[in-house]
Structure of FlgD Ig-like domain-containing protein:
Amino acid sequence: VASAVVSPTTEPRLRSANITAIAVSAANVVWVGTDNGLYRLTWAYNSSTGRLTFPTWREYRLENGLNSNFITSIAFDDQGNVWVGTRAGLSWLRTTGTLVTTFTTDNSGLIHDRVQSVTYEVANGSLWIGTFGGLGQLQVGLNLAGTDEQAGPVLYPNPFVIDDVENSRLTLAGLPLDSEVTLYTLTGQLVRFLEPEQGATVIAWDGTDQGGKIVGPGIYFYRATTRDGRSLRGKFAIVRAR
């Protein structure tokens, strides 16, 4: 059985020998998590020399958009999107390697920023997220596509458990740049108009209507309108905390 060792000694681009997570996509792309960064790479093995080479090598760290260099877990959904748990949130990357956003307790309903494990359930399109504060679920299977051009936004959490706590937020991530979002009831009544910050692809909503009142439980619709007039639509549920 042939074997090859990859370490910072044999591969200087690898910043740490402490490998904390590893996953291989359906396209044979290897994602490697360490305590000092995330790597996306393709590889080739030379049986004559016993050496591994890496035709492509991409690094992700704080300076590349991650919230933490300590990677705890890696999972793929059925569209090839990559979900990376870190000690400071859950990062979402396209199958192409583009970093979309990182979910945290500040911008989403994530229970705790320290993510311990992530796994995807194919049967219902759910991403299960184990954290220091409990178990969370993100519905991704019906909302995402595998390429940047086709992908729609993802809502988190859905359902949105709304209460009177100030930091309760519903997050729409992966929106086309500078999209405007309008929220409606099932009957088409306007609930809230949301404008993003300049250059933003993420919008968070605090569960209040245009008048500042917390909305009631039920099914709601969103419409994201792009700068060129295209519309993306979807629905979500709101439930009250017990």
